């Protein structure tokens, strides 16, 4: 890989600089900042700063941080606010309907300010990822597996019950989320490999596992696991079937984005009323299938979802209105809290409740009421802002991108390359990095995922699956 053209890193920050210059014109500033994220994607994927990894074809390396992580994290963070902005202008989809709610005069200034923070964060994230890229990774180990689908199925079936078992014991519960995530990813890749290898038994086993994961995702009450299920399967089928997968994948994802808000809304309402999860899931699906006004219902629910839940800019605005004006910057407090959350409760009986620790700053900022049962944990960029403002966003997102890339590099060194290192271990154990989370949850998850990855390398070496290259 050729050295980076360091002066070209400034290109990443050009949208933020232009949006900041135009801050007295909120609509122009917002649009420059919003479109700026697409410019950052262009700079990243054109290789103007540092060339993209060329040791594999594009479809065979999509789970490297420069691709999947950046698109999901930055796309969700910085690009989804367009619906909130359109709604503030009085639009529903492309139709002007006026805004029945009172819009304060400075709402557009607030939207533009937060979008400038978003594009700054996106620039810093891309900067960190690109700075951390050092491909090709030196291969110190190789994987021995006569059948990759057998190996992947073995990992999946090993991790699934173990993760469930660990979740029942406080001292081991740190590993349950990591093992469940690894089982899900390994099982999904096994399904793709079983199709490639045309192994009927493996195909049925992996297909059944994928169906179970999808049913579990439908019963989770969240949209992301369902979308991730389908998205990962499509990514793993791309190297097998090429571009012909893309139209089907995009069509399925579009349908999911249109249908899921109504499904999840019905599901959560029934669960909150005391209906058990399985019944709520089945009835929610039944309501959608048998609805007399399906398109109208889905359209209305989907717009509310796009404006209020898909984009988190409304909450970000509330944080910027309270900090630092009424609540001072937290400075290093959140990082210190994050480090403390790593300690297992088994060794620290007085360990504070992490959820409550995070929600305290949500309540303090007035984002949700203390009597509400809603969990509205601040996004990673919000925690960075609450710590040190704009400089906190730049430092935090740069370290986030650089750290994610460093972990992916380590995984490839430990497991003999991209496939087992990034596509299985990194994607399975570090899924929290795709969307991000509050600092306390991130510190805990990353630390114990690293520990889990080291343990798996030891198991692989002991079983002869992984051997050192002379």
Kindly report the average pLDDT value: 86
| Count of all domains | 1
Secondary-structure element sequence? Answer: HHHHEEHEHHHHHHHHHHHHHHHE
The residue fraction in helices comes out at: 55-70%
Anisotropy-based shape: globular
Distance between the termini: 24 Å
Count the beta strands. 4
Task: Give the number of helices.
Answer: 20
Q: Strand order, main sheet: write it out.
A: 1-2
Structural class: mainly alpha
C-alpha Rg (nearest Å): 23 Å
Report the sheet-strand fraction.
under 5%
Q: What does the largest sheet look like?
A: 2 strands, antiparallel
- List low-confidence stretches: none
What does this structure look like?
The chain is an all-alpha fold. The protein has helices at residues 10-21, 26-46, 65-79, 81-89, 107-132, 148-167, 176-197, 200-218, 224-241, 245-272, 277-289, 294-310, 313-322, 333-341, 354-364, 380-388, 390-414, 418-429, 432-435, 439-462, and strands at residues 91-92, 95-96, 141-143, 466-468. It has a two-stranded antiparallel sheet. Strands 3-4 form a two-stranded antiparallel sheet. Helix 1 packs antiparallel against helix 2, helix 1 packs antiparallel against helix 5 and helix 2 packs antiparallel against helix 3. The two termini are 24 Å apart.
């Amino acid at each position: 890989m050729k050295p980076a053209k360091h002066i070209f890193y400034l290109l990443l920050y050009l949208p933020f600089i232009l949006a900041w210059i135009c801050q007295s014109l909120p609509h122009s500033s917002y649009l420059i900042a919003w479109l700026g994220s697409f410019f950052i994607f262009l700079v990243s994927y054109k290789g103007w700063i540092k060339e993209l990894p060329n040791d594999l074809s594009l479809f065979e390396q999509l789970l490297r941080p420069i691709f999947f992580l950046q698109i999901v994290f930055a796309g969700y963070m910085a690009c989804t606010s367009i619906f909130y902005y359109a709604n503030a202008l009085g639009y529903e989809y492309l139709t002007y309907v006026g805004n029945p709610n009172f819009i304060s005069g400075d709402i557009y200034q607030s939207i533009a300010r937060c979008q400038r923070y978003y594009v700054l964060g996106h620039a810093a994230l891309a900067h960190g990822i690109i700075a951390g890229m050092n491909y090709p990774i030196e291969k110190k180990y190789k994987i021995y597996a006569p059948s990759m689908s057998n190996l992947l199925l073995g990992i999946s079936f090993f991790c699934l019950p173990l993760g469930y078992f660990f979740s029942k014991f406080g001292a081991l519960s740190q590993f349950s989320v990591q093992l469940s995530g690894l089982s899900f990813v390994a099982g999904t890749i096994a399904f793709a490999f079983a199709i490639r290898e045309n192994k009927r038994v493996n195909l049925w086993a992996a297909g059944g596992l994928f169906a179970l994961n999808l049913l579990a995702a439908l019963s989770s009450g969240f949209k992301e696991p369902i979308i991730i299920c389908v998205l990962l399967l499509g990514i793993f089928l791309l190297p097998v079937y090429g571009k012909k997968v893309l139209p089907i994948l995009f069509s399925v994802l579009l349908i999911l984005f249109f249908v899921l808000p109504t499904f999840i809304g019905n599901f959560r309402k029934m669960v909150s009323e005391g209906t058990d999860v399985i019944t709520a899931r089945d009835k929610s699906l039944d309501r959608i299938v048998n609805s007399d006004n399906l398109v109208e219902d889905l359209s209305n629910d989907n717009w509310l979802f796009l404006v209020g839940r898909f984009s988190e800019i409304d909450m970000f605005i509330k944080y910027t209105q309270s900090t630092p004006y009424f609540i001072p910057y937290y400075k290093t407090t959140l990082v210190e809290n994050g480090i403390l959350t790593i300690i297992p409760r088994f060794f620290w009986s007085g360990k504070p409740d992490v959820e409550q620790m995070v929600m305290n700053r949500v309540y303090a900022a007035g984002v949700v009421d203390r009597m509400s049962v809603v969990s509205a944990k601040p996004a990673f960029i919000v925690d960075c802002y609450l710590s040190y403002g704009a400089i906190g966003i730049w430092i935090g997102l740069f370290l986030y991108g650089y750290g994610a890339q460093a972990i992916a590099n380590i995984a490839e060194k430990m497991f003999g390359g991209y496939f087992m290192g990034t596509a299985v271990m990194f994607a399975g154990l570090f899924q929290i990095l795709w969307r991000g989370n509050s600092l306390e949850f991130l510190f805990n998850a990353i630390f114990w995922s690293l520990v889990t990855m080291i343990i798996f390398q030891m198991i692989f070496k002991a079983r002869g699956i992984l051997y050192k290259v002379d």
